[in-house]
Amino acid sequence: MARSLGMSLREFDRLPDLERSLWIAEYEREQATCGECGRPIAECSDPEREWYPFRTVCFATQAQAAHQARYERLHEKAQWHNGIFTSWSERQTDEHPFHRDAGVRIGVAERDLHPWDDFTREPDASPIPPDPDEED
Ligand SMILES: [Zn+2]
Q: Which residues pair with 88 in a beta bridge?
């Protein structure tokens, strides 16, 4: 144990009692903890114990993945756009040099931050906010 701390036995023995006790306690805790699951080895190495599966769900990540998939499906055929997402092409051209994923990161928020940009449903939706001086 002294070696794992980078000390000689003599150096370890010279540590104040409290510090030495703390190191020993931590060493014993590490030795009793499973390196695989982090539980006490006495528990997880017991073959008579049953272990039940569970899952945790991040609904924000789930929603993000769904929006991402919808966006990709919406632009599955024509994946190249004009830079402001209002015109799409099946091939990369001078007018459509940008791939649908270039520079795009799809996130989720608790409110609609860009209500004008319905990019997962409207193929030609633009991320550029409408000019407040212009009426529809
Ligand atoms: Zn374990």
A: 81
